[in-house]
Fold each of these.
Amino acid sequence: MQLLQEPGDGFDVKKYVSKLTSLEEDARRLSRSLVGFLSSSQSTRLIVAYSGHGYLPASCMFWHTVTMDEEKSILLLDASSTALYILAYRDPTPIVAYAPAPSASFLNMLQVARVMGHPYAAFTGKPSGGREAEVLEGYGLLYTASQGELDSSLAMSIAVYHALAELYGGRLAKRGARILGHSREGFTPVVEGLIEAYGDAVSWMLSHRSLTVTSGRLLESSSLYLVEALRRRGVDARYEHPEMLRGPGDALVAGTGVEEYYLRELKHRFSSTGIVVRELVVNTDPVEANIYLAILANYIASTHLDH
């Protein structure tokens, strides 16, 4: 293995804290729009659609909602599947859609939604201007302040967390109140501790020429986000579902504290196939875990931009 640059080389952690502060401020702005859209809907159904790294905020919204709201019927689908298989066969249903870099399939889905009478709130990255801005102008989109796909995706995901923390603050007794308290505190105050706590794991990941990342379904979206961050640092990273992973080789297994037995099962299974496993366990409430892992990944990707 060839040791690549350490995460702190040429990059001040405090500089990243400043960056995350700006992203979280933008996320709080977006969260107010999301709260308004969801509060105005009396439907017990919701479609969450995405394109590209919009999977991260869409997944955060799915898991947060199914955890806190047992009465909500929610679908999580990519934009193409939503347009082709869902919208024409449903009564008007609210849609929340995420695409840090809006694709043709994403815009087509919004066109179909408009024709079929489905109300939507669609979040995308800030357009670069010119022709792109002209094309997007008629869709009623909500823009992040960032143009970068990974930054926009993270801002959207934090916005989802803050919005749903507010909406579900009274649910599940103390859990809803605790999540709301965490939301009001924000993620920025804990990021330095997060980077320090997982510094060894980050160095281990960056020491590889190639690396496989795997996880359970909960952390699938943030694990895919991590793979993209590692690729931007020169690591030939790929994501595999645990059921498809074969050795030999090294693998990072991402999980949460509540997945202790599942992670133990995976380690036992992988060891028999010659896979060397490194665990990355996010010990937070599961509805927060994707965001913490994504912040860590965004830090890794940001160090690349600083070099």
Amino acid sequence: MKLTPIPSNASSVNAIFPESLARLALGCTIYDTSSSPEARVYCVDTDDRRLFIKTSTKGSLSTEAVMTRFFHHRKLAAEVLLYETLPTPDHLSNGGISQRDWLITGEVFGKDCTDESYLSDPKHLCEKMAAILHMLQEQPIHDFLIPRRTDSYIANAWSTCSRILSNATGQDNPTSNPSLTKDIDVRYYTDRFGTASVIDIARVFQEYSHLLASDTLIHGDYCLPNIILDSWKFSGFVDLDCAGIADPHIDVFWALWTLQYNLGTHDYDDRFLDAYGREHINEDALRAVAAAEVFG
């Protein structure tokens, strides 16, 4: 996690936070820890604890708040201290105000798995990732009332995939409308399953998406920055906006992706798969997930 210090004087704090939260942050040590353009995340060190304050567009953090509370109940995430939609300084409207979501959580103690102390021992890291994933997937879900995610996951990918298939003009010609594919990144599929055209990947999704189940608790973005360890002991998950009940291959896909991305090699894929258990993996379902991520 990258900590970028930001000023904690009144003018800076009042320009960022709603009035009620500015009083909390004023005079504290504040860092910007944001990693995506969709949301801003601030780390605020108060007198007695470290808080993480996340903000995004109105309504966009509601699922994350619900899921974080659920995971905290299972001792898998930090406590949610506040979730509200609040009037917030709007830098795009010349001093105006807009309604934004604000989510405050406590700290999950430790360091995320991109820390060098973990990346420097990739074999152990792969085994730890597999063990934590099993622990998550074995969580009981009988009392879990959040709607299942698989149907919307498939529908989101199919909305693009179906247009590509309907525009296909031949086996070797991806589409008759190149604008349909300009923002598609086929590497989510080809990095693992080899060379394939957009139309090839669309046909894979069409053929195998029915294999995706809705019977397992998943993180949904099972990547190294979202898993916190305290000296190799699991401490908790963060960024739970994609969590829910869905197909376990979604988290397997992201585990393989994040290991390759952060280690810079596929050399440890087999280590993870062996530790996770190849008998738990349906290769065609994994292909369907990879294809879904191309179009999703």
Amino acid sequence: MKIVAWLAERAPDDHTPAPPVPVTTARPPRALPSPDTPDSDDLEHPNEHGVIDLEPIYTVIDYTDATGTQTRRRITMIRVGRGPKAPLLTATCHERRASRTFRCDRIECFIDEDGVVTPCHEFFRQVLLVDLDDLTPAKPPTAASTESTADRHQVTAREIRDQLRPALSILVTAARCDEDFHPEELDVICQYAETELVRGGRAPIYHGDVTIDTLDELLQLIRRMRPARSSLPGYLEQVLKFAPDRYARFVRALSAVIAADGRLADEEEDLMADVLDLKTAIEAERDNGWRQINY
């Protein structure tokens, strides 16, 4: 069964090379730090209380450390919490290939894969629904308070994404097989999400909150997803629990994603055969201790 191994090879871990730094004309060029050069240690760590776990979003930051050294970093977010002087972001730094902590008041901006630049506070509020003002040393963190300041369609899109996360994560992993998220693949995944809203019986839950703006926000959330290899076993286990009709819709979507850009011609036939018998492939890998994933 090749499908599980194929997914595992394409899901990133801490040692997977990061995507290229996006080109932006809104910021001057900055050097990427050498993996062998240690970071300046500010001796600051998030408080064990007052931590908000973040979505594992891949992005790029412009950062100035305690010595005044300016660098551009490719990171995947882990958590944000209070620090003694400013909120602290913990993330996987793909330049260092390790977890690092960044003071948020030293993050000048975030840069997305299209080169769009967003100020730090604005990025946290708009993309992560976290208000950094709630993470000042004098205040406890709260993610709930952001709902009053963020548009309702952002909150609804996040709720939908969270409900569909296992399936979406596997579909996104398949789509990012070459580190490019092609429009055709994104379109297939968004169509799947919309179908699940209607045929999966979830739309009535939101009482009319699902609008075009909501679906646009959902598209952006899906586009930013970069599931880690370590999360695949849990997502695949969830797929095994899908009801027959839901499982059939997921299999159709996975087949459509694999074929969307036509780049897998040589192995497509074998992969498609595995997808049609996906449950057997997942069960075999689970019974084998997820060896193809945890290699």
